[in-house]
Design a protein that fits this description.
Length: 465
């Protein structure tokens, strides 16, 4: 067989094989071949796990970071037998979210290891940042929960990649009003992005200066077009429960007490009403905050010189000084209100005053001013008292006045005080504790409540609840 014949057979065989591959092999390949996919139940392609990682939308669980709870869940009593549970959680995964994150919430009574209520639920976990898990109101009947735990069912999480640009939503002009009556927070939510943002959840947490959660609420905004803003309101039917014994800002207080002769008109041994006045003054001192300092000035014909106790004395010294107040018996003891105010003003303006502290003067008297006198000037004792109070107020001192008994000039006391709401009238010593408590609460200025507002954007309306 010559070479040409052999070559021809080879060419024919090659053509036959090529035809078979084209007509049979290729169709069979496409018939049975399955390209790597993110839902084929196998690890293939660039996947780093079964149907996750690589170019797949799902993130492998090993590649995700666990959710971080920002403290324990907080329980709030919002009504009779009604409670809310609030937890702040952070997702450290910058570009991953969970559409349906299952969790278990357990509520416990004091010293109990058995939960009084177990709640199974789910929530949307947005990428990168903090969000609020909010459950309630929950009717627990006679149960009184004091603590709660939050457990994530992380083994069931389906982490999805989200590489979209973050929504530029900002809360501004956040204002709390009416915390002592019907609290209300007004704010403005601004969409700084170019596109419309829909299904916006806003959660607000209000804490006291001690870090304890006072109140929580949430609301929804259906949508905001790019560059627009919308007002939002959170409100509560009952005043916030804030510990009155904790003051946010320091205050230097001068306690000014009348020890004129009339302060024993109701009894001599012990002198009354002076004894009751001293007891309630001690109660008042104990009501002041730990950041406050106090001084004591007593007056009759003149104010005590030096003052009974200067600013900065400890509680023991203050108590002793109050107990030592007595009515002098060497001469008739009149009422020089102006002298008491001026002595307190001098002490509050002394080097012992702290620059960062507010100043307050609390005056108690059971009569009208009778000293000093000035020839040719009618009613000079009142004029002198009014001028003394004006100078005190001019120095930034808040002046509170208390009139005890039937012989006081309540209108004069209103003019001495910073405002008429800082004037109090006690028909007898029985009312003094309540009055001193009100003044202590006013003096004890609390720091502005800490307001944290969290924004979460849901994928669609079905996530709203």
């Amino acid at each position: 067989m010559n070479q040409w014949s052999i070559r021809r057979k080879r060419i024919i065989l090659s053509i036959v094989v090529f035809v078979l591959v084209v007509l049979v092999g290729i169709p069979l390949f496409f018939l049975f071949y399955r390209a790597p996919a993110c839902f084929d139940g196998r690890q293939n392609g660039d996947e780093t796990g079964v149907d996750c990682g690589g170019s797949c939308q799902l993130l492998c669980r090993a590649e995700s970071l666990p959710l971080v709870s920002k403290g324990d869940p907080r329980i709030l009593e919002v009504g009779h037998s009604l409670y809310e549970v609030v937890a702040v959680v952070e997702n450290p995964n910058i570009s991953a979210e969970v559409r349906h994150a299952r969790y278990t919430l357990k509520l416990f009574e004091e010293a109990s290891v058995t939960p009084v209520r177990v709640i199974e639920s789910e929530t949307f976990v947005p990428k990168s940042g903090a969000f609020v898990v909010f459950e309630g109101p929950i009717d627990l009947g006679a149960w009184r929960p004091v603590r709660a735990t939050l457990e994530w069912q992380a083994d069931k999480f389906l982490w999805q990649k989200n590489t979209e640009a973050a929504k530029e939503l900002v809360a501004r002009d956040v204002l709390l009003t009416g915390e002592n009556s019907k609290p209300r927070i007004d704010a403005t939510i601004v969409n700084n992005s170019l596109d419309r943002v829909a299904n916006i959840e806003l959660s607000v947490l209000v804490s006291g200066e001690d870090g304890n959660l006072i109140a929580a609420s949430k609301t929804f905004v259906e949508g905001l077009v790019g560059g627009s803003a919308s007002p939002v309101v959170f409100s509560w039917p009952q005043p916030f429960k804030i510990k009155e014994s904790i003051c946010g800002f320091p205050v230097d207080v001068a306690l000014v007490i009348d020890r004129s002769g009339s302060m024993d008109d109701l009894g001599v041994n012990p002198p009354q009403p002076l004894t009751d006045v001293k007891n309630t003054a001690l109660y008042f001192i104990n009501r002041l905050g730990r950041n406050d300092r106090y001084s004591l000035v007593s007056f009759a014909n003149e104010a005590s010189q030096p003052v009974d106790i200067p600013l900065g004395a400890d509680a023991g010294m203050m108590q002793q000084a109050v107990n030592n107040i007595s009515i002098a018996t060497t001469s008739v003891q009149n009422t020089n209100i102006g002298a008491g105010i001026l002595a307190a003003r001098t002490e509050l303006n002394s080097i012992r005053h702290r620059k960062e502290a507010d100043k307050a003067l609390v005056l108690l008297t059971d009569g009208v001013p009778t000293l000093p006198v000035q020839a040719g000037v009618g009613n000079y004792p009142e004029t002198y008292a009014l001028e003394s109070a004006r100078l005190a107020r001019q120095d930034g001192i808040s002046v509170y006045t208390i009139g005890l008994g039937k012989d006081v000039n309540i209108n004069l006391l209103k003019m001495l005080a910073t405002t008429t709401t800082e004037t109090y009238f006690a028909p007898s010593t029985k009312e003094l504790s309540g009055i001193y408590n009100q003044i202590a609460t006013k003096i004890c200025k609390k720091k502005p409540a800490v307001i944290d507002l969290y924004v979460r954007v849901f994928p669609d309306k079905s996530f709203l609840k």
